[in-house]
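quick one: S-adenosylmethionine bound model?
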Amino acid sequence: MSAPSSPEPPVVAPSGAAPGPTADAGYRDVPATEGGRAGRGWWDANAQEYLHEHGTFLGAADFCWCPEGLRERDARLLGDVAGRRVLEVGAGAAQCSRWLETQGAEVVATDVSGGMLAAGAALDRATGVRVPAVQADARRLPFADATFDVAFTSFGAIPFVPDAAAVHREVARVLRPGGTWTFSVTHPMRWAFPDDPSERGLTANRSYFDRRPYVETDAAGRVVYAEYHRTLGDHVREVVAAGLELRDVVEPEWPADNTEVWGGWGPVRGAYLPGTAIFRTRLPG
Ligand SMILES: C[S@@+](CC[C@H](N)C(=O)[O-])C[C@H]1O[C@@H](n2cnc3c(N)ncnc32)[C@H](O)[C@@H]1O
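yep, here:
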């Protein structure tokens, strides 16, 4: 990430998503409706490019929590999913859901982007593992109360909406009492550093407390991409306000054998800074 005053716009978004045809990029407040709406269009337009760049690392029927490469088969953050009703929000091409399906879970994958879900349907055909998929904004889930035992997302939805509290409320509504909600996001600390995988990315250049989103606009000034920063405390307050209990915050370390560079993530910065935070929460009951 670059400072708002930097003469050069950032070349990658904090999530590592490659920029589209943008006229301007930086950190600034935009109307919540514009920022929240941009996600769908951006992911529709960039689904193929995103999967071309990251598809091999993610796998077609594999569950990766983050660029550090933490896999659910090793981490088991969701516990035993066999026979459990599982919801993925912001599923993208549903690679995680596809893996859960192979573990005996009853999964539904949801995403706001038809382009990402279409890419997921192509992976269903290629792998022979079919995941039921529903197009839905994570802030308005089309499911009855208390439907699921487990809900999760790996970097989906939350970074791209101005009102993540609405996602937590919706997930809490569709979870059964005792159900769990686990989500990974860019580690909040990362927002204080340039989004650069080299040593340049190791020197803080903006305030951790600056909540202005990273925004890209087109030539007409329309918001085409927005990504939102929340401090650690912001995330905790939002899940607690939704009636969820916080059980753990997992901060995966960068493994010595992981050479992947994903946007600002990579082995150089990974040796010093956390890149991902995974929040494990539970609906009481
Ligand atoms: C970084 S991808 C994460 C998906 C997958 N785990 C992956 O690593 O490719 C972010 C996903 O969030 C989805 N998304 C963005 N805003 C959303 C919203 N409001 N509701 C649901 N999904 C949303 C995007 O369409 C995209 O598929």
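Residues 24-283 form a domain with the Rossmann fold fold (CATH 3.40.50.150).
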